[in-house]
Design goal:
The complex is a heterodimer of chains A (424) and B (525). Chain A is an alpha/beta fold. Helices cover 48% and strands 17% of the residues of chain A. The chains are: A alpha/beta (424), B alpha+beta (525).
Chain lengths: 424, 525
């Protein structure tokens, strides 16, 4: 008996493993089969590849907001829409892999700076925006989804950094220069002048306003206005001036390695910091903190450039291997030309919209969100070129080390060399 | 089972349930094979198809008859070993000879297709038509014709891939709300049907002139677009029809790209290729990478050995103290000491990482210190070891307590009678006996810490980075590999695979040494 029981168990295990093997790659085909059945049931013979369901991927925050308007759109257009939640930090990689394997979604949501990587991996298809799109969508949104002269997505929300000021700790709620910010906070007796996350690994995203105001840039632009990865600004003159400024602020204790992504917002909401540089995601926490505050654009240094933080634009993309490319493109056109989807999403998750009509509507009811939306117009879209991936690590570490007391010039130049090697 | 079940007995006892089970299992295997095989064929995954067919054949040969008894035992284990262990290793080794990574995931055809598809430009002044697709054949097969309504002029145009756009006589079609709804003698496709044939439709662009064509956009609109780039398969070049520039294939670094006349990379798309041993070359000949690898290896050994020794020393000491019969409330102490073990490692690591904050951290604030824990390389290493000590000592404590209780008290008593001091009886009698039981666990603890990615990544993130971003002062090999593969400029799976293969060999050698070490300790008995 024993041997039979054993072999039976083994076979059971084998069967299970077969199922796993099958699951490795049968999604698209089995999806195709069900699709065929569904449309046959509808009385019309369709081609084999359509799965009959428009699948949209979104992260855990945006998916619940997207679901109702997307479903409503599907009902209007005669296709079932399914919104699937994929964790934000895995979304891009999973999308590239799944799309290549042929079992990805038709549409995905994501930040605009993914475009470079998605294009080099051939994961997304171009989107043709209506010629009058400029009337419906803010310029920063269109600029962000344009890559190498082609538009790849339909933007719906924009995020950028702004300055939060605690009225209890400063008399200058909207300082016009960085120097004014420092002296006002010192006069107010705040424990910390500015809450800006740095940590030991640095945070070039939050440091960008300071870096640009002191003259630093990341990539130059070529004659056609596209970013040029061979013109690297890290290690050049402007970045060295910025390094000096960062070192100076580090010495003064305005920038601190001990403030990082974990504690920057809480230091401000606990009243331990006069100012905070953060984005709209901090808004809910700051409102709950219970003190009066002002949000204003981040000031630059006196007599230097304006501070230009990054703008990140959330967009929809069509997968290059979409099973329902027709409906996917239709969805894009409709989201681009009508505020309905953006509006429903705003109501569920108030991110600063790029839709101009929606902006006007909320101008009086939600001033903070509008401040962020307008601050984004002065911001630079985060570079979408793949070379940007090589920037974050070395530049962040260089900035963190400079704040910690490392020699500004040689550290910044070292980072420049490292980035240049990585870009190749 | 006992020896009464000799093979001779078993082979003769063919019971009904046994036959039914066998038929069922073999039937399921066959059904699964028949179900999965076409899927794998359609995906062209020949490797998995081979695995599937071999496995199915193996099951049938081995289990359908009463012969091959050893094979019946060997097959399941060997199968899982092959599929889940040897195959991944083989794949990793295979990838280590390619340039697989971001920008080089697909084939050359896919890259060219993506470049061409991305070059379609919407003609700025052309209208966007309301589109209807009609066919004189069937909805699934075609041939298809596009009927377009110009939104401004209201005129109806039609055309297909061969015939350029021409105006349609008003009587032939019915237009409702600016859209053609019926065509004489043809079937109009609904949205779902258009969607189903969308890829075909895209190729059926209605020509306006040589490079400009009307293309569908979604299921009910069409736009006028120009395909700026064209691929010449014979010459293997891409031509820009607007400027006349010709892009040729050229090698930049390890990868082939389409480059312009000056040799500059024109498009970011590249494709998967074999690069020979160049990944290994980069690992061993690039002085920075090689140095980082060596220093990471040294720190990995220090970290793993240090963690094991410290946790064992503390765990053993506590176990000894709490093993003393005179101590009251030992259960309570023991339960408290095991607490760190009960907290999920992810959480305690993140909490600890905040404790070390120079200005706001619990440690500096409580002790009145101003130590730059995570900014100073040596202090960061101390912090990692301290935290890992806290994380790991309860395990050693439990293990030691258990082993101590298995050592008879008579042995230490006898030693005491013979005049041994308390320290001598512990170090000469208890410890060697304890090590017999615990040594294999120490070895496995070493192996675990050797690849303890979480302890580093969640605590310090590898930092600080005094010399730039390559390797942080607290990076062990595995976290460095992760940084190389997924940090820097996008995912570089090829190079990471090469590093992993080296790591695999290294761990293999270490494991062999450890096994010898374990055998030596077991010889005490």
């Amino acid at each position: 008996m024993q041997i039979r029981r054993k072999s039976f168990l083994a076979l059971g295990g084998l069967a299970a493993s077969m199922t796993v093997l099958a699951a490795c790659g049968d999604d698209s085909s089995s999806g195709g089969t069900t699709g065929g059945d569904a449309s046959d049931g509808g009385g019309a013979a369709t081609g084999g590849d359509s799965s009959g369901r428009l699948v949209i991927w979104a992260d855990e925050e945006k998916a619940p907001a997207l679901e109702p308007p997307a479903t409503a759109w599907g009902e209007e257009n005669g296709i079932e829409v399914v919104v699937e939640v994929v964790p934000a930090d895995e979304l891009q990689n999973n999308f590239i892999t799944a799309n290549q394997a042929g079992n990805g979604p038709d549409v995905t949501m994501g930040a605009h700076d993914w475009i470079g990587n998605l294009v080099q991996n051939g994961s997304i298809a171009p989107v043709q925006l209506p010629s009058d799109v400029g009337d419906t969508i803010a310029p920063i949104g269109i600029e962000a989804v344009t890559y190498d002269g082609q538009t790849y997505g339909v933007p719906y929300a924009v995020e950028t950094l702004a300055l939060y000021a605690n009225h209890d700790l400063t008399d200058a709620p909207a300082p016009s220069t960085f120097e004014e910010l420092i002296s006002a906070a010192e006069a107010g007796g705040a424990e910390n002048i500015l809450s800006l996350p740095i940590g030991e690994e640095g945070d070039p995203y939050h440091m960008q306003p300071i870096y640009t105001s002191a003259g630093g840039y990341l990539f130059g632009k070529d004659s056609e206005g596209s970013l040029d990865p061979s013109d690297l600004g890290v290690g050049e003159e402007g970045s060295l001036a910025a390094a000096d400024k960062i070192a100076e602020l580090g010495e003064q204790g305005v920038l601190k390695n001990s403030i990082n992504g974990d504690n920057s917002i809480s230091l401000f909401t606990e009243g331990k910091s006069a100012y905070l540089i953060s984005g709209p995601w901090a808004l809910a926490d700051v409102r709950d903190a219970g003190f009066e505050f002002t949000i204003s654009p981040i000031p630059g240094f006196e007599g230097m450039e304006d501070a230009a933080p990054f703008a990140g634009v959330n967009s929809f993309y069509v997968a290059s291997n979409a099973a329902n490319a027709g409906f996917a493109q239709q969805f894009m056109t409709d989201v681009a030309s009508s505020p309905d989807v953006a509006k429903a999403m705003y109501e569920a998750n108030p991110l600063p919209p790029v839709n101009l009509e929606l902006r006007e509507e909320i101008a009086t009811s939600d001033e903070h969100v509008v401040i962020f939306a307008e601050a984004a117009e002065a911001a630079d879209p985060m570079p979408a070129i793949p070379a940007m991936a090589a920037i974050w690590g070395p530049l962040g570490i260089a900035q963190a080390n400079i704040v910690g007391g490392a020699d500004p010039h040689s550290t910044m130049e070292g980072a420049g060399e490292e980035i240049a090697t990585a870009i190749g | 089972m006992t020896s009464t079940h000799a093979p001779a007995h078993r082979t003769r006892s063919t019971s009904v349930p046994a036959v039914v089970t066998r038929v069922l299992v073999l039937g399921i295997t066959l059904a699964l094979t028949v179900f999965i095989a076409p899927v794998l064929i359609s995906q062209q995954s020949w490797m998995w198809l081979t695995v599937l067919l071999l496995a199915a054949a193996g099951i049938f040969v081995l289990y359908s008859t009463k012969r091959f008894v050893p094979g019946k035992y060997l097959f399941p284990g060997s199968f899982f070993l092959a599929v889940f262990l040897i195959l991944p290793i083989a794949l990793t080794v295979g990838y280590s000879f390619t340039n697989y990574g971001d920008g080089t995931r697909g084939t050359k055809e896919q890259a060219v297709g993506s470049i061409i598809a991305s070059s379609v430009q919407q003609s700025p002044d052309a209208p966007r038509y309301a589109m209807t697709v009609a066919t004189s054949g069937t909805a699934a097969e075609g041939p298809y014709e596009l009927f377009l309504v110009d939104p401004d002029a209201g005129t109806v145009l039609s055309g297909d891939a061969e015939n350029a756009l021409e105006e349609v006589p008003a009587g032939d079609v019915t237009v409702v709300d600016g859209r053609v709804t019926e065509v004489d003698g043809m079937t109009v496709l609904n949205a779902g049907e258009v969607n189903a044939i969308y890829n075909e439709l895209m190729e059926l662009a209605v020509p306006v002139d040589e490079s400009t064509a009307v293309r569908p956009l979604g299921v009910n609109q069409a736009f006028v677009g120009t395909t700026v780039l064209q691929y010449d398969e014979d010459a293997d070049t891409i031509t820009d029809t607007a400027t006349g520039e010709v892009y040729t294939v050229s090698v930049i670094g390890d990868e082939e790209y389409f480059v312009d006349s000056e040799g500059q990379r024109a498009f970011s798309q590249s494709w998967l290729q074999s690069v020979g041993i160049s990944n290994y070359e980069r690992l061993f000949t690039n002085p920075t990478v090689a140095n980082q690898f060596v220093s990471a290896f040294v720190w990995t050994l220090v970290f793993a050995a240090g963690s094991v020794l410290l946790t064992f020393a503390l765990g053993f000491a506590l176990a000894l103290i709490l093993n003393d019969q005179r101590l009251k409330g030992r259960r309570v102490y023991r339960s408290i000491l095991i607490m760190p073990y009960a907290i999920p490692g992810f959480i305690s690591l993140l909490v600890w990482s905040n404790f070390y904050n120079q200005e706001f951290g619990l440690i500096n604030q409580t002790l009145g210190l101003n130590l730059n824990w995570f900014g100073d390389p040596t202090l960061a290493q101390v912090a990692v070891l301290l935290t890992n000590l806290w994380m790991g000592f309860p395990y050693m404590f439990i293990v030691s307590t258990g082993a101590l209780q298995a050592i008879p008290d008579e042995l230490t008593e006898a030693a005491r009678m013979d005049g041994a001091s308390r320290f001598q009886s512990t170090s000469k009698i208890v410890l060697p006996l304890l090590l017999v039981a615990v040594a294999p666990l120490l070895v496995s603890s070493f192996a675990f810490n050797f690849n303890n990615f979480n302890a580093i990544e969640l605590l310090t993130g590898g930092g600080p980075f005094p010399d730039g971003s390559g390797r942080g002062s607290t990076d062990i090999l595995i976290s460095m590999v992760y940084r190389i593969a997924f940090g820097g400029s996008g995912a570089d799976f090829g190079f990471a695979s090469a590093v992993s293969v080296c790591l695999f060999i290294l761990t293999g050698v270490l494991a062999a040494i450890q096994f010898r070490f374990t055998n030596v300790l077991e010889d005490v008995n």
